[in-house]
Amino acid sequence: MAEEKESTSVPLSQTGGNGGEDPEDPEKTPPASPNSSTRKACCYFLQSWVSKKFMTGCVVLFPVAVTFFVTWWFIQFVDGFFSPLYERLGIDIFGLGFVTSLLFVFFIGVFVSSWMGATVFWLGEWFIKRMPFVKHIYSASKQISAAISPDQNTTAFKEVAIIRHPRVGEYAFGFITSTVILQQENEDEELCSVFVPTNHLYIGDIFLVNSKEIIRPNLSIREGIEIIVSGGMTMPQTIAPLPRPNDRIPLNRIM
Fold first, then answer.
1. Engineered SS bond to 203: which of 19, 160, 199, 217, CB 3.0-4.6 Å?
2. In whole angstroms, how far apart are CA 65 and each of 17, 69, 76?
3. What are 31-55's pLDDT values in tens digits?
4. Residue 239's closest CA among 171, 147, 167?
5. What's the sign of the alpha-carbon dihedral 215, 221, 225, 226?
6. What one-character-per-residue DSSP string does 54-82 give?
7. Are 225 and 218 in contact (CB under 8 A)?
8. Is the pTM of the predicted complex or chain greater than 0.90?
């Protein structure tokens, strides 16, 4: 019995040497057929085509979805101001509160444009500016709204400007906010205060640049704001500078 057990227990290494094939040996594995290679290439091409078209669809639908979502949210938000009033009156028409809100804003603009409305607005502004924390929020928001206001005043952005910054050959978008005369011994120099936003429109740097070195493009204030807020994605393909005005008379000749 012991001899029979010894004869039956043969090591696996010996069986491999007697003609057995090792499936992990790359030299002994059979070569891939042409049909399997073609199938893999077709699967790879189909997968690449499907993923590319899917990403194209996402790129196309993403701005549409965001626009629809923001517009729908804005309509519901504005509609919520007057819709409860109509619900108490038994009137349930979607969008009526939104239209009422737009008319309300329009009539507020008409009222503030009058002498009486400007007086009431001035009193309300005087009261808000006396509040400790609210006055800072109101002042910052007022400066931003004044920049895009159709009634330009001394606090609004005057023009869109392009200055050479930070190195030669590089340019930066900014807004001209005011002008100042730098008095020197030889000749007075007119400088423009250019606000260059670094974080949308809230934070930025102020540069005093010679008025002759400023490039004034053919862009409105709103177009300049859209370019900065969008990160340059709304930049027009061609920008042409506005024609320069006639040479100004130096200040020392006027005096």
1. 199
2. 67, 6, 16
3. 556 667 777 778 888 888 888 888 8
4. 171
5. negative
6. HHHHHHHHHHHHHHHHHHHHHHHHHHHHH
7. no
8. no
